Queue: 2 jobs
Job 1
Amino acid sequence: MSKPFETIGVVGGGSFGAALALAAARAGRNVLLWARDPEAIAAMRERREVPRLPGATLPAAVSPVAELAALADAQALILAVPTQALRQVCTALAQALPDGVPTISAAKGIEQKSGLFTTQIIAELWPGAVPAILSGPSFAADIARGLPTALTLAAREADLAQDLAEALSSASFRIYHGVDIRGVEIGGAAKNVLAIAAGIAIGLGYGESARAALVARGFAELRRFGEAFGAQPETLMGLSGLGDVVLSCASAQSRNFAYGLALGQGKTPAEAAGGKLAEGAFTTSVLAEMAQARGIETPIAEAVAAIIAERIGVREAVTGLLARPVRAEN
């Protein structure tokens, strides 16, 4: 008798996509792993290695594929591609695959040009898909090594969210489930902005107390933003909100924290990126704009957006935050 969601398709052969493929294989699933890069496909097929995940070896249950049409055998998909590339990928998937496939976004961001969250992009470009979201405190290297990791998966239908969570969970990879799609998306997107701010504080040499203050006040911004868009407070306080904030704001393994750290040390935004993706660099400006449009106060996000746009210097921006009027905490 076949298992529910016996075959999982993972779109994205980078470190996070490969790590999720390994996690699905540990959960007893057959995995079809698609990557755009022919060299990556060759390495995964011939040597069972992942170019962007040193030390990881693909088990037999993971089959690298070069064509999106090869994912037609999957009963569910995980999209592990950057938010700003999701539109193009969904357009291609809609042309290559049948409708009705549960499609889980593993991206953490907001589309810069449209202000859409990731499941909204999926729904717009591939109306026949069934969108879901997976997010929470997780580094690809930890998942790949099988270290204990817990995430949140949300779908519109509670039964589907539970079934997907159970299909992907294992002893070291625990997935909680729910229906608050927007709350999970907002936690994943906004935490990247806060990680950049935390990195800036450390890069400036302001110390751990300053980082703690920025994270706490930044989380207050995240909650205001989330609640304005209908997120449930419990979700924002959970793994995909507070949990991911704690991880991303405390470790240089976070690309967004590392990006902020480099900004605080005096590098330009281009230099700080160093050729690596920091989703928060794209999310910050659109999040600040969306907040302003709704009258939501987000001074930390606005300051980070101004720094990245090079409208203001790092020290000037932080000085401006410190000079804000004394007020009651809420």
Note: The mean pLDDT is 94.
Job 2
Amino acid sequence: MRRAAFIAAIGAALVAVGGGTGAPLPIDRPAPEAAIFYYAWYGTPDVDGEWMHWGQGQHAPPQEIGSNYYPTRGPYSSGVSSVVRAQMREIAATGIGTVIVSWWGPGSVEDSRLLPVAAAARAAGLDVALHVEPWAGRTPAGVARALPAIFDLGIRDVYVYDSGHDLDEDWRAALADLVSLAGLRVFAHTSLPGKALRGGFQGLYTYDVLVYDGRSFGRMCASARQLGLACAPSVGPGFDAYRATGEARIRNRSDGRWYDHMWQAAVRANPDVVTITSYNEWHEGTQIEPARKAKGPYQTYDGAWGLRGPRAQRAYLDRTTYWVDRLRGVTPTAEPVSRTRVGAAKSQ
């Protein structure tokens, strides 16, 4: 009780000096949401004139790609409307409500694709949020100037990756007028609610499933509620970026047990949003988009929840449906796997 009172007092003091933007969240909060990070940066020669992103790590698509997994669709272009529409239908079918689109600022390839991706998402019944990436020269003031251009898309949730790169006071000054005028909910990329509050953000998220293992989610969300912030912990199936970047650390998927572990931690934290890392970040091996067996050193989802072959290709999408139901208080049709010890981050 003394800890809660202390946190509440800090929150009140920070709000009084301009570090926050409102009162604590009401007791009767809306049902928690599920949102997923989505990347529209892929390209192919026949559509885009060159391979985009699939060759990361000096690989030669389509046989060799910058991922330890191979998409069931093969290396695709995010500029093909039929591909994007199918992806949005897949996401919506899990019960996820929002797709968080990676955005690298005005004039970027991802900027040019934002409108069609948003249209496909809306057609599938999804809301659209923005993942503001750290483009060259990005500043808090520059982000605040750029965001009004996307308001017509109906985007009201914005997630700022690597927000800690800039000073809290710079974010607070940049976001103050923007948030009050547009009604935005801007999330800081941090696990520290006090830092998010000092920066004038309305929430926080963790994104990184290599660094954050779920153990801090309960404390993080409890502190966020005391400070009037929305809490959006990030869950993911694993991490393996070796082929794309040479990164030796991995987060083993453990046949789906790691995904279950992170979801259990997030649901117990009583979050406002569970953010999923990711639908299709193939470079870092966090994707839940279907993957298949392919010639070469590619991993598959075989073994996840006991599934193999074609059934395993959609294993993580199907498991997401289970956990979204749990998040919303719906009784799922199947129970999760037993709580055996899951794989931790380790070196290859």
Note: Confidence is low (pLDDT under 50) at residues 1-27, 337-348.
